[in-house]
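User: My collaborator sent over this chain with a note saying "see what the structure looks like." That's all I know about it. Can you take a look?
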Amino acid sequence: MGLSDWGDFAVVIGAATAALLGLLFVAVSIRVDPIARSAELRNRAAQTLTLLLTGLLVAALLVVPDQRKWSLGAEYLVLALVVVGVAFVLDRRAGNRRGSPFGRRLDAVNPTVVTCSLLFIAAVILLLGREDGVYLLVPALIAVLVGGVVNAWLILVRLTG
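Assistant: Without extra context I'll predict from the sequence alone. Here is the result:
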């Protein structure tokens, strides 16, 4: 199975993450006042946005025609490193994560760590010339979808900043 055979999977994941990105904006707009007042909620919403955008970018890069394994691996490696950096900054800016039950819930189920770890391993395997690293995208993107939905729900039902 070649990289070009992953097109349908990438289209489905891309559409799902794009839809969830739109729903995240709706959830944020419904709770705009508490989110605006809370650094934690603002940064958690930004983390969820980053997670869903990562899934969309993973899918978009997968459907680039005639792409070599090593170039896809390099793109995924850069993406994983950038997302880890952004997640770290947002987590620090969210602050008070140890004392907040909300922050602890999101930290306990951290789909960004799962996604970036699997994306990093897939990137290394692709850089080594093996395309079976692409199979690691399946659990990574499932983590994106599940994590995006759970985080958006937690942001939506969080009533106080």
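A starting point for your reply to your collaborator: The mean pLDDT is 87.
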